[in-house]
Amino acid sequence: MKVLLKTPAQIEAMAEAGRVSALALRRVGEAVEPGITTAELDAIAEKVIRAEGGTPAFKGYGGFPASICASVNDAVVHGIPSRKMKLREGDIISIDTGAVVGGWVGDNAWTYPVGEVAPEVARLLEVGEKCMWEGLAQAAPKKRLGDIGHAVQSMAEAAGFSVVREYVGHGIGRAMHEDPNVPNFGRRRTGLKLLPGMVLAIEPMVNMGTRKVVEGDDGWIVRTRDGKPSVHFEKTVAITEDGPRILTTEEGHPRPV
Ligand code: MG
Question: Distance, CA 108 to ligand 1 centroid (Å)?
Fold first, then answer.
């Protein structure tokens, strides 16, 4: 394992990739409504990313054909956008998108409700988001990777939900996936020590039912084994002397002049 530490100047540069990623994700989220297709959402993300001078980080990554992953209801991650997939009232959709700007990558995800969702689904959305914030809060010097995983897992399980094991967060920099892996489960005070200059994508996937997942037959989509819904929230965060600095935020960095 080789963890690449970033300098403060590199973290500033990553904040610009983060800003574009966050903007694209917000614009897609604002377009989520009954009747829209996931292909239309994908087009919005790509347009925003390119207008900001970036390139979609996902397009062509390992052969992935689109700028977003669009994972509806029991789909956990890696759903391929489609003109045939039309959102319906009561669905949830997990959007994952990232941008490359100046050679640096930003990566973020959010699960949105489509209109009104069932109360238990609303609770899953709320808990999934909280899990992400709890994990991000641990992204500080003197903490360890296990502190992140423990924070996420204990929040999810206390609510009666489960966390996916097979897919995890990751280091990020010039490549979308760098060392280390960042599991959403673990024990306190175990694992790699976190240092200033590490940049991580923290991304809990929280399931309403079983934590078990199955891969679909297109070679990409991952679904819950029991068909119950799953949510996914992700931000890219830099570990600084002062604690976590979220990079996938629109306030992250002024545009270079
Ligand atoms: Mg990621």
Answer: 6
pLDDT in tens, 151-190: 999 999 999 999 999 999 999 999 999 999 999 999 999 9
Contacts of 101 (CB under 8 A, 6+ apart): 13, 16, 17, 20, 52, 53, 54
Q: Tell me which DSSP letter residue 123 carries.
A: H
Ligand 1: centre distance to CA 235 (Å): 8
Strand order in the sheet with 75-77: 75-77, 222-224, 213-215
Model confidence, pTM: 0.97
Ligand 1 centroid, distance to 221 Cα (angstroms):
15
Q: What are 165's two structure tokens? A: 């094991």
Q: Which two tokens stand for residue 94?
A: 């997990």
- Ligand 1 center to 203 CA (angstroms): 6
Give the total residue count for the chain.
257
173 C-alpha to center of ligand 1: Å? 11
